[in-house]
Amino acid sequence: MSSKGILYMIPCPISDEREPQDVLPAENKRVVDELDYFIVENTRSARRFLSKYKIAKKIDDLEFVELNEHTPSGVAIEAMIKPLLAGRSAGVISEAGVPGVADPGALVVEACHRHGIRVVPLVGPSSILLAVMASGLNGQSFAFNGYLPIKPAERSKALKIIEKKVKSEGQSQVFIEAPYRNVKLAEQIVQSCAADLRLVIACDITSPNEYIAMKPIAEWRRMPLPDIAKRPTIFIIG
To answer: How confident is the model over 163-217, as pLDDT tens digits?
Structure first.
């Protein structure tokens, strides 16, 4: 009976304007050069990343399967890990940053743990952690809330819960939004949250246009909001 393969969690740059070699350790490439099977959020972006990475194998000789919001759960996930059960190693690649965090790659990781397949996370940029690092807010206790509700009334309720956690526990609250809805969310935070809370807006992290600022909400109210429309942004309230 052959030994099982290894599932490698492969980070990629957050910004398309950064070369993989600029933000990823050299050891990562040595791992990727050995792989020919990849479980990816988007095949096109994964191929582009691997091409820019100048990996050892030809891109057309690699096998890609997609794991995203359109992938049916259960049987499809089990099919993805069959090659690993037979001894073939694989890499998981998100569209940006680290896979498995705010990313559907977590589903295949869970399946690998159930089947006793080793999972190895490689070092790379996480916009969530980078934003917390640069926030000046509580880095000992923080929570990632993912996406807040889209409807204003439901989002307002979610913000009140977040505000309560910050005030009662001192816990920094991290969340994201679809880039085209960034402005609406930022406006609602500034208008509805307590003036003494602090808000971090971290935009285009690691890109040449990176913007990271932390100010009390009272101060955000007195100034124009930064241009964050259609730009990947992390929000932190603390």
So the answer is: 999 999 999 999 999 999 999 999 999 999 999 999 999 999 999 999 999 999 9
Residues with Cβ within 8 Å of residue 120, at least 6 apart in sequence:
6, 7, 8, 9
Residues 27, 121, 237, 208, Cα dihedral to 10°: 30
* Rounded distance between C-alpha atoms, residue 210 and residue 228, angstroms: 11
* Cβ neighbour number for residue 158 with a 10 Å cutoff: 16
Q: Cα–Cα distance between 13 and 34 in angstroms, integer? A: 20
H helices of the chain, in order, are 20-23, 26-32, 43-52, 75-85, 106-114, 127-133, 152-169, 182-192, 217-221
**Full-model pTM:** 0.90
Please give the Cα distance from 8 to 116 (Å, whole number): 14
Dist. CA 206–CA 97, nearest whole Å: 10
Q: Which amino acid is at 234?
A: I
